[in-house]
């Protein structure tokens, strides 16, 4: 899809050029750290461009050639719904915001191209996402309970590695964590447990470089290893989603499979009240 296909989607060439340059810079930094840590030969690091509160034209600019970027992250269900309807169906959307139970079914059922939900922190929310994805499969005429026939929705379990009360997430050493992961794997036919995610403490993020270790990243990696042992699976079967604009290089050095970068690509965000999708 281009701006010609949708007359309301006019991409400003100057803005597009700026965004492409900033995305390319982040990709180069990712490749550089991956090469230093001998990870360049393994599967590539997934870059989720966090586009919350940014207009749909910004996303279209990066999704169009020459960059053809696929993975974008959003924090608000209503904004994501609007963008998924406006933008090409092959975009892979990640929901990375605080997840409310009453929005889970709508999110999993209605968002076209929803690839992953990264903020699952309870069995209740997993069950509702599973139900919503099943409803989407039923609506689309695919077999909801046959993994070979229907694309499952990937989910990451959010871990509160910093122990801050203001942060969502499951406690790293809790029985609840293993129970939740087992529930997703064994009882949610429309979901796939993709891995674990953390946001971490801001102060630690600001102090992180490619050479310094972040306690939150260490904790998430240790937690992943323990969960994999409890589930009887290889550690590599569970991804680590950690690292944002301030600290993604340090996260990759610590083993992150996916980084979520927003302001370094898109620049400062407007306030929620001033943001416009179209």
Would you identify the CATH architecture? Alpha-Beta Barrel
CA-based shape = globular
Strand numbers in spatial order across the main sheet = 7-6-5-4-3-2-1-8
Could you list the spans in which at least 5 consecutive residues all have pLDDT below 50? 1-5, 144-149
Helix fraction, binned, reads 40-55%
Oligomer: single chain
CATH superfamily: Alanine racemase
Q: Biggest sheet, in brief? A: 8 strands, parallel
Average pLDDT rating: 91
Walk me through what this model shows.
The chain has 278 residues and is α/β, with parallel strands linked by helices. It has a single domain (13-266), classed as Alanine racemase (TIM Barrel), CATH 3.20.20. Helices cover 42% and strands 14% of the residues. The protein is built from ten helices and eight strands. It has helices spanning 13-36, 56-63, 77-86, 101-110, 123-140, 175-187, 202-207, 215-231, 248-253, 263-266; strands at residues 46-50, 71-74, 92-95, 114-120, 153-158, 191-197, 239-241, 258-261. The protein has an eight-stranded parallel sheet with strand order 7-6-5-4-3-2-1-8. β2 (71-74), α3 and β3 (92-95) form a beta-alpha-beta unit. α4 (101-110) packs parallel to α5. The two termini are 15 Å apart. 43% of the residues are buried.
Could you write a compact summary of the structure shown?
With 278 residues, the chain is α/β, with parallel strands linked by helices.
Keywords for this structure?
14% strand, 278 residues, eight-stranded parallel beta sheet, TIM Barrel, disordered N terminus, alpha/beta
């Amino acid at each position: 899809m281009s701006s010609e296909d949708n007359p309301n989607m006019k991409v400003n060439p100057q803005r597009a050029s700026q965004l492409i340059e900033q995305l390319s810079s982040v990709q180069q930094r990712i490749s550089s750290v991956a090469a230093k840590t001998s990870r360049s030969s393994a599967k590539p690091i997934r870059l989720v461009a966090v586009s919350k509160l940014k207009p749909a034209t910004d996303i279209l600019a990066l999704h169009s050639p020459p960059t053809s970027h696929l993975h974008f992250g959003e924090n608000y269900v209503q904004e994501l719904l609007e963008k998924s309807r406006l933008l090409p169906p092959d975009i892979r959307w990640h929901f990375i915001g605080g997840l409310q139970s009453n929005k889970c079914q709508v999110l999993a059922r209605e968002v076209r191209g929803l690839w992953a939900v990264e903020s699952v922190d309870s069995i209740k929310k997993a069950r509702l996402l599973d139900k919503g994805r099943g409803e989407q499969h039923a609506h689309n005429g695919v077999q909801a309970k046959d993994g070979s026939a229907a694309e499952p929705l990937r989910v990451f379990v959010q871990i509160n590695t910093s122990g801050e009360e203001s942060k969502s997430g499951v406690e790293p050493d809790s029985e609840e964590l293993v129970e939740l992961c087992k529930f997703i794997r064994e009882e949610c036919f429309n979901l796939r447990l993709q891995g674990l995610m953390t946001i971490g403490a801001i102060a630690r993020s600001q102090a992180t470089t490619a050479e310094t270790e972040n306690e939150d990243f260490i904790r998430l990696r240790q937690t992943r290893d323990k969960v994999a042992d409890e589930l009887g699976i290889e550690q590599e079967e569970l991804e680590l989603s950690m690292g944002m604009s301030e600290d993604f290089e340090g996260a990759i050095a610590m083993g992150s499979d996916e980084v979520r970068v927003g302001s370094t690509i898109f620049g400062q965000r407007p306030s929620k009240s001033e943001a416009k999708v179209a």
